[in-house]
Design goal:
The chain is an alpha+beta fold and 138 residues long. The chain contains 3 helices and 6 strands; from the N terminus they run αββββββαα. Strands 1-2-3-4-5-6 form a 6-stranded antiparallel sheet, sandwiched between helices. The radius of gyration is 19 Å and the shape is globular.
Length: 138
């Protein structure tokens, strides 16, 4: 059984093996970020077949954002195929970010919204929709 010091050393090895890389970023004519993505890999990248991988893509349209998180279920899947969609609204007057996912898709506040073509289509329509005279965009 390892002692505390070797356990701490192992934890530091795991933390140092975590990589976070900006994948891509596109901007509109005014220089606003429209699509950005980050990737994260947990574990050693030398000689390991089952690395835990995660990608997060954010689609930005003013105060509205779609966050698409895709992973390989902690290394249990061969492909990045487990996806969740979140719809977020950044309120410039009140500050903070509000999760609008359940408002648009229904269900409870923190329910998972699977990353399907149909759900992504609905999310993109929400992202592009404008409403005037309402407190919150739906």
């Amino acid at each position: 059984m390892p002692d505390k010091q070797s356990g701490i050393f192992m934890a530091l090895q795991v933390v140092s093996a975590t990589m976070m890389v900006t994948l891509s970023m596109f901007t509109d004519k005014e220089g606003n970020n429209m699509i950005s993505a980050t990737t994260t890999t947990f574990g050693s990248d030398i000689g390991t077949d089952n690395l835990a991988k995660h990608v997060n893509v954010v689609f930005d349209n003013g105060p509205k954002m779609i966050s698409l998180a895709v992973d390989n279920s902690g290394g249990k899947m061969t492909h990045l195929a487990r996806a969740d969609i979140r719809l977020l609204f950044s309120d410039p007057l009140e500050g903070g970010v509000e999760d609008m996912t359940s408002t648009v898709f229904g269900g409870k506040e923190h329910d998972v919204v699977r990353g399907t073509i149909e759900n992504m289509d609905r999310a993109m329509k929400w992202l592009q929709r404008s409403q005037w005279g309402f407190d919150r965009p739906v």
